[in-house]
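User: Here's a protein and a ligand (glutamine). What would the complex look like?
Assistant: Let me lay out the input and then the predicted complex.
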Amino acid sequence: TITIGVLALQGDVREHRAALEEAGASTVAVRRPSELEAVDGLVLPGGESTTIDKLLRIFSLRDLLRERIAAGLPVYGSCAGMILLADRVLGGTSDQQTLGGLDVTVRRNAFGRQVDSFEADLSFDGLAEPVHAVFIRAPWIEEAGEGVEVLARIPSGYPAPVAGKIVAVRQGSLVATSFHPEITGDHRVHELFVRVVREAGPTSVKE
Ligand code: GLN
């Protein structure tokens, strides 16, 4: 069976685990290298990307996680998790590094004061009904490479420059959303990720 880890250094780990389990996966909290080695997929929750970046080093997870991503580990990053997956960051701190893997440029804290945190109904590629998306000091994707599938954008009714901004993507086994589907009770984004992990098959280092 497939086991999906939730990085448990910061953020709403419990909500992600509950959503993944509702979507049919077994889950585990990941804080140690041995736990990271044993998962077939990983969720990077929201939080503060600069802090998670530092904690990944302190917990000796950063290099291993980069290796596993390069080897095809499916990862879903929400909000700060999206920033961590991005190859390029705008608006980061001067020493901020990401894990990388997603060929995108994200802008951190992109929405600015007036719409700092907000909710929107988004049409989402592959899903029949719109997704109610909760944005909390969220990033957006400013540029996406050719291999990146855009799954959702901010609707056209929003003022410029917010309208049309990319807020959900997939590239191979990597999925990222600017928003937090784990807190809405709608598990369709987690279901999508569980399917991605199942398609990739068991990838844990220790069989
Ligand atoms: N602003 C946070 C960051 O830069 C992300 C916010 C979130 O994850 N809700 O990492």
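Summary: Residues 46-49, 79-80, 83, 108-109, 136-137 surround glutamine (CB under 6 Å).
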